Amino acid sequence: MAASVVSYNDEEELNAETESEASSIYQGSVISTVPDRHGFLGGSQYSPERKQSIPPDVILRRERKWIQMLNNWNLFMTTNYHKVRERCRKGIPPSVRLRAWLNLCGGQLLMNENSNLYEELIKRPGDPKYIEDIKKDLHRQFPHHEMFVENAPGQQELFQVLKAYSILNSKVGYCQAQAPIAAFLLMHMPAVQAFWCLVAICDKYLIGYYSQGMETLLRDGDILFALLKRISPVAYRHLKKQKMEPILYMTEWFLCVYTRTLPWESILRIWDMFLCEGVKVIFKVGLILLKGSLGRTSLTKCCPTTYETLQVLRNPSQHIMEEEVLVYQLTNYYILYRVFSNSRLYYILSVTFLMLQIQRLNLSEEDFEYEHQRQMLKRKAAEKETANRTD
C-alpha cells in the first residue's frame, strides 16, 4: 500500500503496486479505498499491513490468560494486581482489549450501576452552547478513518457520546480535547461502552484537566518540568534557557493522552498501561519524548530558538517507530534504529523501545507524590504573594 502521506508533487512517484489499488487524492494525501488494519484510509496514521510479529501460539496463550483474568477480575485486582500490570505492560491482545479497557478504567462498573442512563442522556437536548461546539469539532476527529469520514455513522455516535457527557457533567460540559479521546474509544467499542470509559477517564484519571483555567494541567506541567531536571538535565537546561513554559508543548500530549501525537501501535500500548497504572504513564511518556528530542547537546544545537524547539516537540512521531518496520523483534534491550527519509537522518524509536523506556524510567510513586506536593506548595505560596501585593 501507499505510504501514509504523499504530497501532490510526489503523486507521480507512486509505484506500480500503489497505483494498482484504487486511491484518490484528498487535501494532499493519498486516500485508499482499502482501510489498514486499524481502519485508516489515509493521513498520517495510515500504515500498510504487516506480518504478525508475535507468534500465533503466543497470542493465543496470552488471550487465554486474559480471558481467565477477566472472568475473575475482582479477585485479580484485589489479590494479584502486579500480574494485571505485568500483562498490560506486555500489551493487551486486540481480541480482549475492549473488555480489558472497560474493566481497567472502571467503565464496566459505572455502566452496571447506571443501566440505561446513556440512552436517556442522548434523548435530551443538551446545552445549545456545547452542542454547537461539538458539531464544529466532529469533522476534525480522525477524518481519514473509515468511521469518521464525511457522513459516516461514527460522527453521529461521537456527537451523542460527547453530548451525553456534557449533560452528565454539566460543570465541565464540553472541552475540545475530549473529542479525540471519545473518537479513539469509539474505534474500539460500541457507543455506550465508549461513553462510560470517557466518563471514567475525564472524572477519575484526568480530574480538572478540562475545567476552565486548566489549573490542574498547569500544575502537572510544572511537575513534568521538575521531573525532567532529574531525567534529562540537558533537555531541562535547554528549555529553561529558552524560558519555554510546559503548557506550550505538553497540552495536547496530556489532554488527548497522545491520541493526536504518536503512531497508532504506540498509542494502543500506552493506553494499555495508562488505564492500568494511571496518569503517571502520561508523565513518563512525556519525559521520554522530551529526553529523546532534546536529551543530547547535538540535538539542542539544532534548536537555537523556541520555534525550532516547538517544532521538534510538537512533532515527536519522527522519533518513534511502529512495530511494522522492525526487522527483528525486540525483547529485553534497547535498540536505536537509523533510517533515511527524504535525505534526512532520523533516529527513531520502536514501540518496544518506547515501552521499555517507560517501564525502566527511574521514577517511583514517592517521586511523583513528592513533586506533586512540592508544586502544590509553590503554587499556594505564589497565590498568597499575589494576594498580598493586591492588598
From TrEMBL:
An annotated Gene Ontology molecular function: small GTPase binding
Provide the Rab-GAP TBC domain boundaries: 91-278
Any one cellular component term from GO for this entry? Answer: plasma membrane
Q: Could you tell me which residues belong to the region Disordered?
A: 1-21
Highest taxon of the lineage: Eukaryota
**According to the UniProt entry, which residue ranges have a biased composition of type Acidic residues?**
9-20
Keywords, alphabetical: GTPase activation
- A Pfam family that the UniProt record links to this protein: RabGAP-TBC
- Supply the InterPro entries for this chain: Rab-GAP-TBC_dom (IPR000195), Rab-GAP_TBC_sf (IPR035969), Rab_GAP_TBC_domain (IPR050302)
- PANTHER family, from UniProt? RAB GTPASE-ACTIVATING PROTEIN 1-LIKE, TBC1 DOMAIN FAMILY MEMBER 10A
Name of this chain's protein: TBC1 domain family member 10B
Q: Which organism is it from?
A: Trachymyrmex cornetzi
